[in-house]
Amino acid sequence: MLRRSLVAFARRPLSTMASTTPMEDAMRSKITEALKPTTLEIHNDSHLHSHHKAMAGSTSQETHFRVVITSEAFKSKMQPARHRMVYALLKEEMAQEGGIHALQLRTRTLEEEQRQLEREKEEKGEPIASAEVNTA
Question: Where along the chain is composition biased (Basic and acidic residues) (predicted)?
């Protein structure tokens, strides 16, 4: 009997299974659809804050997030405007009971991300590939 149940569960399409991270899934979907990011990292840091007084009695395991977004939609916008764009996308998730309580954002363009990667390589002493080739 148990074996049949496990086999039936294994054959069940993933789309019909309840997600264990519905808040993260909603965030990923909205950000991806609206901003078309080249990089999207969503880190659930809720476990680091579960002991805080504000979290007492909360059953939600998805309240504190750290998000890194690289998107050309941020081009020519300052950080506050970029953050407002993301807050507007996630306003429902932030307003609902047990929803997003804290959101740490790193928003950048592809060029900013590439510059950051180059700086990190320099700090590690790794050679940086130059875009220019000297043929002389």
Answer: 112-126
